[in-house]
Design brief:
The complex is a heterodimer of chains A (about 110) and B (about 110). Chain A is mostly beta strands and about 110 residues long. In chain A, strand 6 (about 60-65) and strand 7 form a beta hairpin. Chain A has strands spanning about 10-15, 20-25, 30-40, 45-50, 55, 60-65, 70-75, 85-90, 105-110. In chain B, the strands form 2 sheets. In chain B, strands 2, 4, 5, 6, 9, 10 and 11 form a 7-stranded mixed beta sheet that branches. The radius of gyration of chain B is 13 Å and the shape is globular. Chain B has about 110 residues and is mainly beta. Classes of the chains: A mainly beta (about 110), B mainly beta (about 110). The interface of A and B includes residues 98, 101, 102 and 103 of A.
């Protein structure tokens, strides 16, 4: 499976933007970039996903590098409720094992009031 | 609507006993997944159901682990002769199709004494 690399932890001040980076240098053409987050004592929650173009939704934005070897999850205005572990995951769109989400250690985001 | 639910939320058992963990997926979701998360670790894929059949059981850590799904809905994960290393949070997720966004339940925290 293609691997992702994320910083272990990051800090942000409340109401400021947060940029969470992810490196995926071995990404293949059929891999989608997914982000999930896990709040304390809860199951993971889908945040956003994309293939090549930047994506926006009500939760966040996803900026994908032109060569697709890295991406950045952007929270436009961090709130205390955004404190969580954020996982960057590569997912094949079909084929054996494409149903699995392969979670790494993720980035633990702390939000400072 | 109702999300994925799991029961019990917490289970404490003695080494050597059998346990059953239950997952109620979102109504209409055909795909169901079990993951395990040990303390401080990422999620480990266990098994995937499409309808009532399990095309991939390769993630089950030993033959003490089994899972079934009946009526294309509720799933039960059974662990026989529990060991201390089985202590973890067991997470269930469901989705419409196997490539879609996965929706996670809150998990069952299993503690084996």
């Amino acid at each position: 499976d293609a691997k992702t690399t994320q910083p272990n932890s990051m800090e942000s001040n409340e109401e400021e933007p947060v940029h969470l980076p992810c490196n995926h240098s071995t990404i293949s053409g059929t891999d989608y970039i997914h982000w999930y987050r896990q709040l304390p004592s809860q199951g993971p929650e889908y945040v956003i996903h994309g293939l090549t173009s930047n994506v926006n939704n009500r939760m966040a934005s996803l900026a994908i590098a032109e060569d697709r070897k890295s991406s950045t999850l952007i929270l436009h205005r961090a709130t205390l409720r955004d404190a969580a572990v954020y996982y960057c995951i590569l997912r094949r769109d079909s084929g054996a094992g494409s149903y699995q989400l392969t979670f790494g250690k993720g980035t633990k985001l702390s939000v400072i009031p | 609507g109702a999300g994925v639910s799991q029961s019990p939320s917490n289970k404490v058992t003695e080494k050597g006993k059998d346990v059953e963990l239950r997952c109620d997926p979102i109504s209409g979701h055909t795909a169901l997944y079990w993951y395990r998360q040990s303390l401080g670790q990422g999620l480990e894929f266990l098994i995937y159901f499409q309808g009532n059949s399990a095309p991939d059981k390769s993630g089950l850590p030993s033959d003490r682990f089994s899972a079934e799904r009946t009526g294309g809905s509720v799933s039960t994960l059974t662990i026989q002769r529990t060991q201390q290393e089985d202590s973890a949070v067991y997470l269930c997720a469901s989705s419409w199709l196997y490539t879609d966004t996965q929706y996670f339940g809150p998990g069952t925290r299993l503690t084996v004494l």
